[in-house]
Amino acid sequence: MSGETRVGSRQDGGEAGRPLALVTGAGRSAGIAASVVLNLARAGWDVAFTYWTPYDARMRWGREPGAPGELQQKVASLGARTLAVEADLSVPTVPAQLFESVERELGNVTALVLCPCESVDSGLLDTTVESFDLHFAVNARATWLLIREYGLRFRGRHGSGRIVSLTSDHTAGNLPYGASKGAMDRITLAAAPELAHLGVTCSAINPGPTDTGWMTEGQKAEMIRFTLLGRLGVPQDCANLVTFLCSAEGGWINAQLLQSNGGLG
After folding, report:
1. In contact, 6 and 82? CB cutoff 8 Å
2. Could you list the residue range(s) of the whole structural domain that residue 122 is in?
3. What is the pLDDT of residues 196-249, one digit of tens each?
4. What's the total number of domains in the chain?
């Protein structure tokens, strides 16, 4: 874990009544997690977030220099306190270290939004053991460890806590990603009864194909053709639902796997 920076943080926990969200995987301005961070800030949350530059560097879209800092500035301009932490979630000690950093700088976490993503296209026949293990370390094991830390540390009012994860059912031709995301949503749904004594709601969202820069023009056309609303998902679509689930109004939705994909067939 490295690259920890903060904007407008205070040791006393900040404004009374302003809750704190921790969002993972917000390294790209075009990504879903970045939209989630901004939407929660607009809705009155302070927001800590993680990013992992080495992942972006080996993907075809490449690094986006300055993106975490720019996201922090946008969050701060909305009146929210924020903390950005570069965190390698494939390392099992990092989730506990992350919570320590966030609690030290911003206070106790009310909402945990899990958007970690290790995603390298490969199928049954060409996936390597190393790639398979890395996908599960980031997308599944880190989900468990982060939720465990959250459950051990949660100090909020009964009924105020929220856990939301972003999953996927894209497995054929994308085996380690889809399989590890399937494990991710099972872990999230298991947390609902296990954390019921804390009054924490836990649900997973499958946002379907979302235009964050990973699709070819052919893939975009195909997804539009199979979606009832005739368009691709955009990050704001998912961010809107995450923000609702984290709100008081969303507090009766629990232990659900939600398909939020415009009617993808």
Report:
1. yes
2. 2-259
3. 999 999 999 999 888 877 778 888 898 889 999 988 889 999 999 999 999 999
4. 1
